[in-house]
């Protein structure tokens, strides 16, 4: 806590609460209020400064709106660990900290990037668009496959961050990766069709398939993901025409296909005339020095490549892209766009395009990955050998292999202790599916909150293990 903070409040003009928020922002930038420090309670600060409680309350609310604070009911207000220029510390002290009072539950279900405090950056981007007279598309319907400028930025981003060269004309702007998956599956398949996928697959794909009346057929996996021989058998047995796969940091298991495995999968797809839907939401988290190329580069004639900007930069953008190979009927995809959303929202895409051009998008993505590396180190330290080694050094989620019974007990134990995990059956597609619990690292507001949650998960894993070892069912 910082109980003796006595800011030098700027003189008028401007309302007093806004000037107090300005003083807070100035002292954060000067290092007087370091990231993670707790501000004094509003009543105490009001008394110390001779101000009304209402003024201080409005100042704290304004500071939170600017992305300077994190407010937690029952705990207080804390300076964000990340500064407005997105600087992030990358070290981690594994010594457990004293848990702060906790209210409600901690969400480890949602697989989103860590919060970067981007409110001010968003405000600046909108102001710059307005000053340049470029906001008009944001209040109009965007016809077809999206704004040309956004698709050009998407092509630049895919080339820069995914190593995938594509023509902007072959890109479809989507309302996030989930919309892209639903769009593609609904355009390629008809109700009753079978779609092949990993035996444990992304919950969003399973939800889309169920909604569209499609049957998912799980394919056996090993430490590299899909087994080519199992895929070949499934394709021959079902005569399916579509394969959905997450080859990099597979969701939920984090497994990553090697180059030779991707080549084998592409070979099987060619032999059985499978169209591949490659969900590569986590490609940017993989080490650029080690990651293999996307399957879309190995089999460009039969692969629809799905890239989610929301997963690596900002969930609220609701922005994703799909590349279209020449074999896919474009008109069917365009009908799907009109049926499922009519047009993509423009403003998030316009900001993204601006950030790609000025380097902000790269800075945010680098910061997200740096913070993800810190959080993964925390998970390794706390969960230890219970956690399967992830397929990259910056995985936003980890996989804990457990029997179905132990997985359910772990979920229940964690929930009673205040941590929400994805239900074990949510990702399962077949009886022989990979069994375990996915733990997402990005949703907690800060590292101390994540640390508390991981200790709870560790205890929840340990408790069912003891029960099974002792024969208690």
UniProtKB/TrEMBL annotation:
Organism the protein comes from: Gluconacetobacter sacchari
An example molecular function term from Gene Ontology annotations: DNA-binding transcription factor activity
Keywords: Aminotransferase, DNA-binding, Pyridoxal phosphate, Transcription, Transcription regulation, Transferase
Domain HTH gntR-type: 14-82
Similarity comment: In the C-terminal section; belongs to the class-I pyridoxal-phosphate-dependent aminotransferase family.
Name of the molecule in the record: PLP-dependent aminotransferase family protein
Listed Gene3D superfamilies: Aspartate Aminotransferase, domain 1, Type I PLP-dependent aspartate aminotransferase-like (Major domain), Winged helix-like DNA-binding domain superfamily/Winged helix DNA-binding domain
Domain of life: Bacteria
InterPro entries in the record: Aminotransferase_I/II_large, HTH_trans_reg/aminotransferase, PyrdxlP-dep_Trfase, PyrdxlP-dep_Trfase_major, PyrdxlP-dep_Trfase_small, Tscrpt_reg_HTH_GntR, WH-like_DNA-bd_sf, WH_DNA-bd_sf
UniProt cross-references to Pfam families, sorted A to Z: Aminotran_1_2, GntR
């Amino acid at each position: 806590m910082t109980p003796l903070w006595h800011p030098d409040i700027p003189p008028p003009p401007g309302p007093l609460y806004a000037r107090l928020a300005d003083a807070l922002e100035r002292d954060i930038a000067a290092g007087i209020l370091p990231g993670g420090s707790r501000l004094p309670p509003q009543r105490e600060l009001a008394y110390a400064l001779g101000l009304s409680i209402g003024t201080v309350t409005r100042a704290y609310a304004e500071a939170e709106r600017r992305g300077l604070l994190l407010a937690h009911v029952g705990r207080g207000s804390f300076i964000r660990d990340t500064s407005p220029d997105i600087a992030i510390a990358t070290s981690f002290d594994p010594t457990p900290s004293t848990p702060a009072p906790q209210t409600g539950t901690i969400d480890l279900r949602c697989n989103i990037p860590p919060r970067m405090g981007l409110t001010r950056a968003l405000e600046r981007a909108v102001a710059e668009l307005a000053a340049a007279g470029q906001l008009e598309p944001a209040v109009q319907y965007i016809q077809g496959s999206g704004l040309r400028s956004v698709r050009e930025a998407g092509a630049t981003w895919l080339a820069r961050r995914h190593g995938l060269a594509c023509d902007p004309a072959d890109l479809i702007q989507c309302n996030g990766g989930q919309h892209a998956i639903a769009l593609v599956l609904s355009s390629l398949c008809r109700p009753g069709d079978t779609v092949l996928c990993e035996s444990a697959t992304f919950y969003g794909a399973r939800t889309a398939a169920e909604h569209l009346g499609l049957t998912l057929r799980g394919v056996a996996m090993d430490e590299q993901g899909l087994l080519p021989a199992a895929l070949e058998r499934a394709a021959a047995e079902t005569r399916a025409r579509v394969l959905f796969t997450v080859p990099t940091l597979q969701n939920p298991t984090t497994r990553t296909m090697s180059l030779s495995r991707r080549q084998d999968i592409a070979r099987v797809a060619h032999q059985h005339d499978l169209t591949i839907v490659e969900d590569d939401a986590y490609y940017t988290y993989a080490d650029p020095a080690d990651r293999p190329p996307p399957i879309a580069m190995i089999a460009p004639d039969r692969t629809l490549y799905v890239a989610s900007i929301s997963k690596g930069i900002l969930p609220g953008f609701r922005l994703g892209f799909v590349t279209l190979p020449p074999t896919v009927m474009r008109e069917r995809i365009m009908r799907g766009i009109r049926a499922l959303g009519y047009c993509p929202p423009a403003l998030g895409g316009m900001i993204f395009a601006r950030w790609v051009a000025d380097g902000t998008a790269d800075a945010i993505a680098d910061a997200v990955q740096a913070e993800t590396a810190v959080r993964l180190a925390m998970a390794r330290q706390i969960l230890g050998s219970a956690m399967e080694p992830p397929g990259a050094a910056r995985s936003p989620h980890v996989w804990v292999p457990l029997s179905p019974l132990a997985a359910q007990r772990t979920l229940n134990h964690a929930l009673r202790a205040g941590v929400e995990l994805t239900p074990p059956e949510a990702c399962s597609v077949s009886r022989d599916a990979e069994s375990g619990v996915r733990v997402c690292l990005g949703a907690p507001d800060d590292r101390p909150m994540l640390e508390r949650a991981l200790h709870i998960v560790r205890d929840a894993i340990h408790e069912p293990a003891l029960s099974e070892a002792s024969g208690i069912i």
